[in-house]
Structure formats: C-alpha cells, structure tokens
From TrEMBL:
Domain spans labelled Phosphoribosylformylglycinamidine synthase linker: 29-64
Organism from which the protein derives: Durusdinium trenchii
Residue stretches of each WD repeat: 303-336, 353-398, 441-482
Upper classification of the organism: Eukaryota, Sar, Alveolata, Dinophyceae, Suessiales
Domain FGAR-AT PurM N-terminal-like positions: 908-1023
Membrane as UniProt keyword: no
Keyword annotations from UniProtKB, A to Z: ATP-binding, Ligase, Magnesium, Metal-binding, Nucleotide-binding, Purine biosynthesis, Repeat, WD repeat
Residue span(s) of domain PurM-like C-terminal: 672-846
Full protein name: Phosphoribosylformylglycinamidine synthase
Entry superkingdom: Eukaryota
Amino acid sequence: MLHEVVSVRVPPKGHTRRAAATARPSSSQDIAYYLRVFRDELKRDPTTVECFDLAQGNSEHSRHWFFGGKVVIDEEEMPLTLFQWVKRPLKERISNSVIGFHDNSSALRGYSHTNFMPSGSVAQPGAFQEVARDYDITLTVETHNFPCGIAPFPGAETGAGGRIRDGESTGKGSLVVAAVAGYATGNLHIPGYKMPWEFEDFKYPSNMASGALVCSYDEGGAIQPQAFGAVDAGGEHLYAVQATKALWQVWDWNSKRSSYRASLPEKITAMVFSPDSSLCFAGAQTGSIYCWLSSTGALLRYWPAHFREVTQLLVSPDGGYLVSASKDSAVHVYNLADVFEDTSGAPKPFHSWSGHSLAVTALALLGGSSALHQVVASGSLDRTVRLWDVGSGRPLQSRSLSAQVNALCAGAAASELVVAGHHGELRSLETKDFGREGGVYLGHSCNVLSCAMSSDGASLASCSEVERVRVWETRTRQCVAQLHGQRDVKISAVKILRRMPHLPSLPPFQPFQRLLCEELPERVLRGVSGREAQLKERMAPYARAEGMLEHVHWASGVLASKASEGTDLGDELLRAKENETRWAKVANQLYRIVTEHGFTWLETQEQQVLIDCSNGASDYGNKFGEPLICGWTRSCGMRMPSGERFEWVKPIMLSGGLGQMDHGHLVKEEPQAGQLVVKIGGPAYRIGVGGGAASSMVAGDNQEELDFNAVQRGDAEMQQKVNRVVRACVELGPKNPILSIHDQGAGGSGNVLKEISEPAGAVIDLRKMHVGDPSMSFLEIARMRGMCAEERGANAEELWTAEFQENNALLLGKESEALFDQICKREKVPYAVVGTITGDGKVVVKDSRDNSCPVDLPLDKVLGKMPQKVFKMQRIYKQLPKALDLPASLTVQVALETGVLRLLSVCSKRFLTNKVDRSVTGQIAQQQCVGPLQTPLADFACIAQSPLSTSGGATAIGEQPLKGLAGDPESCVSMARLAVAEALTNLAWIRIPTLDSIKASGNWMWAAKLPGEGPKMYDIAEAGGALIG
C-alpha cells in the first residue's frame, strides 16, 4: 500500500471551491558474530540480560535485516537491496523532503504561518497570543499484524500509541495532528451473508483472538450478580435470578429462550448449585437459606442463617460443606451432612467467623488436598481481605486494601487471589505470602464489579461499571481482549465456564416448592455420605484425558436424579466406560467452543478481530484527542488455482499520522558527555516482553504464551500527558530543552536508551526507573535478600526489555532540568533521570544499591555496522495468470448485487467512521465523510497548519494487494504501479505547488521469508522505486 503526503495551500473558509486538498529470533549468523565478540574481544560470557537484549534489539522488527540484506533470486545476485530501491526516489529527487529514512517520521518543507501560542511562563497560566511560526509537515505510517491477531483491541492500541510516539519523537519533538488507519482481515463469514469464495474448511491458529459473542439470553430485567452461572459442570445449562423479582430462569446453551422459568418464595440475592447439580442453595434478602432438590423441586431445608441479606454462597468442590456470607459482616460454614441428617431445627454452622466490621461482599475457596485442608477467603466493604482455615476454623491472615472489595476469585492452584474493588482496583495477592502483592491489573477506570478466573489460572475476566468485560492473561497481568455486549446494557457480573459439548441433557426442572418436604429422600442422604467420592474412585481407572474427573461431577448429577427409578450405579459406570472416547474428546476442549452442534455464532473470529481492532484504534484516538480522517479496509481469503490458500489470517492494522514540527527542531543533537538521559511516561510493567522477537517470526513458530507476553497495553491518558509535555517544549521554539528524543518500542528500555546514547555511550541506573509492578523488578529489597544471581538476572531482563507503552527517552542539558521539571509537574507526568552520557562508547546498566552490572556492552558492537546478511530465494509461481474472461451471463446488475457492492472494500464504512472523532483539534480541512449526506469515504484527508492559516498538508492512500496474487513478476509490477496510481489520482483535487512536492511512504506487510514470497516483494519494491523515481 502507498501513502502520498503533500504540503498544500488550503483555501480559506467561504471559498467557493471546497478544500480540495522471548523467543529466539537470532540467526546462526548473529550467534556466530556475538560469539566472536564476547569470546575474542570482550573475553567474557554474556549475561542473561545481555542475551535477551541482543535478541530483541537485533530482531528483524528492529534492524530490518531483510530490507538491508543482499538478495539472491534463482542463484542471481540482485543489483540493489530493498532499502536501496525504496530510497532511490528520495536520493535522485530530494525536492522538498527535509527528513527521510533517518528519523521516526518523514517531513516535507512546510510554510510560515500564524498560530496561537501561550504567552505566560510554562509553570503559570497565561493568555494566548498570535505568533509567527515556520513548521514542516510530518508523516509517519506503520503496520501491525502480530499484536492485532493475538489480542485485537490492545494490539490496535499498540499500533496507534506506538505511531503517535513515533510522530512526537521526530527531531527534537513534533506535534501530533491527525491519524489515518487501515484494516485487512480474512473472510468474515457473516451469517446470512455468505460470499462465494469463503471456504468453511479454513482453519485458524489456536492463539488467534476470538472473543466472539456466541449467544445472548434476554428475557426480562437485571440479574443478581451472585445468583447466576452454570447449573452443571459442562456449562450446558445457565441460570439467573432476577434482581427485582422473586423469579429465576434456566437456559439451555443451544436455545435463546429460557427452558425453565419459575417463581421463588422470596427475593433471592445469592444462588449456587452443588458440584453434581442435584442440590440448589439460595440465600435470601431476609438472611434465610433455602435448599431444593433439582430433579423434583422439593424444598429440603430452610433456615434463618443471617439477620441481614445473604451476599454470596459457595459449595466446596467435593460437596461437603456450604459457605455463606452476609451484610451482617458474618461468614458461616455448614457441614452438609449435618444439615440433612438432623432436621429437627435450624442447622448450626460448624464455623462462624465475624472478623469483618462491615458487610462481607465476596467469598472465594482456595483449594487443598481435601475439604478440611481448604481455605476460605472473604472480602468486605471494610477494605480488608481475610483468610480462614476450614479444618480448624482459625483466622489465618488479613490484608488491608485501599478500596472496598466487590469480588474475589482464585484458580485451581490457589497460588494467587484476585481482588476486585472500587476505583478501578483489580490486583492479585500471593496466598503463600499474603502481605506481598502479586501485581496490579491496570485498565479499569471505575468500580470493578466482578472477576472470575479460569480453572487453570491462566486467564482472568473482569467487568466494571463502564468498560464492559476485560480478559487478562494472569502471568503478565495484561489485557488481551475486551468483550462488548449490547449497547446500553450494564454488565454487573462475569463468569468463566467450561463448555462441554455432547453431554446428555439434565432432567427437566420442576417448580421449586415453598413448603418443606416431610421426609428427606434417600438419594440425598446417599449423596452427602460419600457416594460421589466412591463414584470418583470407581471411575478413576477409566480416566485417560486430563480433567475427566471433573466431568464426573456432572455424571453423578444424572445419577442423583435417576436413583428413584431404580437405575443401578454399576450400569451407569459401564455406560460411562463405553463412552470413554467421547469423554476424552470433550476433556481436551476446555477453552474452545465448537460450533457444529446446532447453535450459531453471532460474530466469527475474523469479524470479531476487525471489530475489536477498529475499536482499539478508535478508542485510543478518541481518548487521546486525535481525529481519524482517512482510511481503508479490506477482507479476503480464497483458495488459489494451485491449491494454495491466500488469506490475511493475521490481520493487518495500519496506523498513520499527519503532524508538523518546528523547522528549527529538525536535527537531533549528538549526545555529549554530561548530558542527562531521561525517561518520561508510564511506569514499567511486565508487558510487551519479547515483542521485537515475537513479531519478527513466522506465525506459529513461537509458543502461545510468548506471543501473549509480547502484546502491550494502551494508556491513552498517559500518552496525552506525555504529548502535552513534548508540545510545551516544542512551543518554546529556540528555548526547547529537548536535545534529542526517541520513542520506546520494540526492545523496550534496552533499545531506546542505547539508541539515544549512541555513539557516546551512557551509564544507566535501573533503580531510577519508575516500576508499576514490583514483582518484575529485581531491585526490591525484600526479594534481593533471598534471590540468587540467575533470578535477579531474569527480573532485570524483564525490566530492561519490556516494551511497556506511553514512554519516551530524551536527552537534556543539566541546565534545562529545572525547566523540564516545571513542565512535567504542570502536566502531572512522571519522569526519571535514569543516567548520564559518558562519552566512552559503552552502555553500562547498574544497580546502585548493590553495584551489580547486568549489561556492559560497547555500542559499536551492538548498534554499529554489522555484517550484511544474504537472503537466497526462488521464484515458484505455478503459471502465468489467464486473461480476464467474464461469462456472457454476468450482467452489471448481477455483478453489483452478488459481488461488488458486498465487498468490504466497497460497502459502507459507517461501522468505522461513526465511532471515531473526525474533527477535534480545529485543524481538519477534509475528513473521511463528505458531501451533503456525509457519506464515507473521502479520497484524501487534509489538515491546516493552524486555525489561522491557509496552508497545510494532505494525504491519500493507494492499496492494490490482490493484483499480484498470481505471483509472477508482471503481476507484482502491476500491483506496485496501480497502488501508486491510486494514491496519485486520490490527490487529483488537491492544489499543490508542484508535482515534486508529493512524496510517497511505502508499507509492506508481507510474509517475505516464506518460500516464493521474497521475489514478489523484491519485484514490487523495484517497480515502485523505478516509477516514483
């Protein structure tokens, strides 16, 4: 795809004419080079941190080895590298280019104009005044596919945020004005909207994001947050109790209409089923607890457990005891054997805990080897979380927090407890060391109402009052997806359920009785006297798939409902054995929902990726205050005549930005000894670890967990604060304190701090960095005392290479530190002076507390000119494309109705334009909706340099990816030429000084290292460079 940018004169308002303007990416060559450097020159072994640093900093993502490498096609060495071809037009006709191929953005010579600037001190408010400025037009464009495929919403935030930092880090700082975006995905498979080329048998990688809305159930009113979930362990039946009425409903997974709906004795505030689904427990607003037999609806027990509302109920995994919490600040534990064996009066709890001073709002069970070895966690409005031992009844530990507790959850391993609370609080506590924080989940900005953890502890889901549902990876505490339901629907609770297809239906529910039954059925007594344990023991020899015993909970539920019919337990066991293969298959499908069993996906994988990608980019821009004014979108996936599959399985997300910069700030200053190395922006988190390497690999070559680790997160509010600091410095004109600025991206601090100190070198103190997640830092005193050198190195590796977003590095003179401090305090932006320029040519990373040195590298060896790589490839296209031959029966009307107008690249783009700001800043002369009906999309976008000027910049996009599908040189050349032609014709209505003032930015998102793909890319680069030059 090609992006044209031009500096233009914009007609003033009223003018009759409209403004027509951690993987191992290193190759054997890299390893041999560094082996020689360390063995022969440095004469020492590299540290773990240095190895990880070099892998990220020298990845394809960071160093562009392929573009700078020697290309050999069919044993013939090509005359120029890819870089030489794309740089050729600039070299031969520099014209009005002032920055090209040597900074974070390109820039064209702009115009002198009048703008509004603050007149007061940087630390004090003051009036604006008209000031003459000489600004150049900047353009930066980058493409992402790896992060958007793994986690679309945060992945698109990564693209938008990273591109904004590229723009503001040009020269000595530049101004961000407007954005462009583009999206390319695979087949959408929209229900009822099938395209003839969409193949149903196409498979997608397991680590690609889904987040698909499978089904929604809507039959009246809000639900009680602690009274909904799955009836059975297989997730086939969902239940919910209404919040405003004494009603409850049950849905079969395959049906949107409730299969059961009935009244309850009173308003219920908490409900839970026993593990075998045979018993239902409910807590009432009055403090009473009810217990029904699911198969008959018989009310088995009822007793006044609390004197205020029951807030939550839990049943132990073995069905042995019931835990209740209440607004009366008490937690009770009931032995179910006692509850059913003695019916003469209200059962007494065998433990009653009253350590909280306010209402208990949340419960969680921390598993043990048996029921009596388990621990109950309780959270309260008194801002404390307490742990209680079930066996002894003793209080174990207590932890005070900064916010009221709304929910608790823990995984099966019970190694961490997650706490959800007010004011966006979502944090984990380590259960073995309860006084120590496991980490913070950042992203929610308002009260977090609910949280739930997957059974293996790998994923966490949470919901808040505004931001709907977020899904997190617990190991990195990084948001990997945002799930959105219907508009104007408040999500008050979230659960993670195991969906097991092929399970037999539960017996139909009978109306829940309001009167106690006179005598307890024998099957209930059998159920609480160890029948389930016996069943597990007898089924154990048949369990071959991991997790099968958990499914037996459901099977025992079926037994409990059939016991009165005389069904023999042994017969049921034999039947289970006969179905062993089926059970094994189900057990291995814990996290993926199959769609071939009678229900329809409302949103497919690629469809959801497109929606979440565009949501992420739009959301980030809206929060930051950057309008999105130009773009494109395309969907394609097909089977080629050769049998090869062509599809954007990893979606392409393009993010570009138009901006401007002071002409006096074009050139970064060279680092000099004594200058300060500063980092500004958000604190460090364990996110984006290994992103440079992971995004440089062929899809599927990396481990899934490493893919997820590499996706960053977005914080548009912090980015806006950083941008205001950069803007304030830029507006100071010749008094700008910034000497040089670089954005933090792939490789994290390790990469950006080496870049900004090259070639002079610097000494960096890791203790000076702001750390938001103490668990990732080896600098914490408590951990340092008991940590071996290898462990310290591993944590330093995370801190030094994590690509946490919204962070820049810059150079300041010592005399400018006070001024910069004033600006940062005014904008409430954290910054840290992490080091100084030394002038010895080395980057040295130290810990000032113990004087350890995890990194000590000569910059000329790691960033200097390294040996050129050679890439050998072959052309393997099967045949030349045939001439276009349209069938005689194909009329224009049929072509439009069945194909052209249904293409994503042609149809309405309101699903993209209606959710994003298109005019903020007051500098937008032409955005993407045009005409009297504001129809998307315009051919170009145009910005003014200021609200007072009639000059500005314009950009247009040309993309023709399908023209070269055949793969032969002629088709690839046609693709390049048509992309250039499309971009130029889209600019036809722009008034420009000369044709030479138009400059092109080419972006390739190509799997060039796959067999046969490299020559295609070379042909396109050669054709594009020759045409533009």
